[in-house]
Amino acid sequence: MEETISLKELFETIKKRILMIIAITVIAVGISALFSYLILTPIYQSSTQFLVTHSNSEQQAISQGDIRTNLELINTYNDIIKSPIILDKVSDELQLNRSTNVLNSQITVGTRNNSQVVSITVQDPEPALAVQIANTVASVFQREIVSIMNVDNVSILSEAKLPENPSPIKPNPMLNMAIAFVVGLMAAVGLAFLLEFLDNTIKTEKDIEKHLGLSVIGAIPTFEVDNQMVAKSENRRRNKRGEDIA
């Protein structure tokens, strides 16, 4: 016979282990807050943009073919920006004590579809250094691309600037705590149902009918013992015994 579980039994299981569920959820949120505020390093982001233009300034009209050529060059430029020939010079100018691979992982180069504007985004634990790296990468690339590709078609549109009150892009403590709350709650509820499923002890008449398939014809009621009444009865018994001995 297939066993079914009613909503009432589900709510009873949750109600019975509500303290455990709350405790696990609070612990999960607390651990997330601890990591977000005290352990994880804040990361700041800064961006600069440059424009890929036509290299021949004497030509006034730019054809569709010239724009298509510039768009195709952008993919090549993206690779050149993150290459050692650029990043090594950036590291030397800023006297960075980090490898080229580490610096490469901090830089993201991207552009929108069919756009000649390229963005250089840098992430770093120090907001001022993120600004310096972004601007230096753009300036070094603009200078070096002349000799690398024999073209001069890069113009800086906007430089990265340090805001008065920089805020990190990660970690996001509130988001992390919200995720921890949902995950902790789900795990706690799942654990509560697992413990209930593994608990095969018989506690009520319903358990007997459910697990043994027997009909309950009688039950012995339980009474709460009044300690004061027991003590008084014991005192009277002792006093009566003393009178009999006397």
In brief:
The chain is α+β, with helices and mostly antiparallel strands and 246 residues long. 58% of the residues lie in helices and 11% in strands. The protein folds into 2 domains: 7-38 and 172-234, no CATH class; 41-57 and 65-158, Alpha-Beta Plaits.
Attribute tags:
246 residues; alpha+beta; Alpha-Beta Plaits; 2 domains; 4 strands
- N- to C-terminal distance: 70 Å
CATH C-level of the largest domain? Alpha Beta
Low-confidence parts: none
Number of DSSP strands? Answer: 4
* Spatial arrangement of strands, main beta sheet: 2-3-1-4
- Treating each run of at least 4 consecutive H or I residues as one helix, how many helices? 9
Domain unit count: 2
Largest sheet: 4 strands, antiparallel
CATH topology of the largest domain: Alpha-Beta Plaits
Task: Give, in order, the helices and strands.
Answer: HHEHHHEEHEHHH
Overall helicity: 55-70%
What is the alpha-carbon Rg in Å?
A: 37 Å
Can you identify the CATH superfamily of the largest domain? EIF_2_alpha
Could you explain how this protein is built, in words?
The protein is an alpha+beta fold and 246 residues long. The protein folds into two domains: 7-38 and 172-234, no CATH class; 41-57 and 65-158, Alpha-Beta Plaits (2-Layer Sandwich), CATH 3.30.70. 58% of the residues lie in helices and 11% in strands. The chain contains nine helices and four strands. The chain has helices spanning 7-16, 18-39, 64-81, 84-94, 100-106, 127-149, 173-198, 205-211, 227-245, and strands at 44-52, 107-111, 117-124, 154-158. A four-stranded antiparallel sheet has the order 2-3-1-4. A hairpin with a 5-residue loop joins strand 2 (107-111) and strand 3 (117-124). The two termini are 70 Å apart. The model has no long low-confidence stretch (mean pLDDT 82).
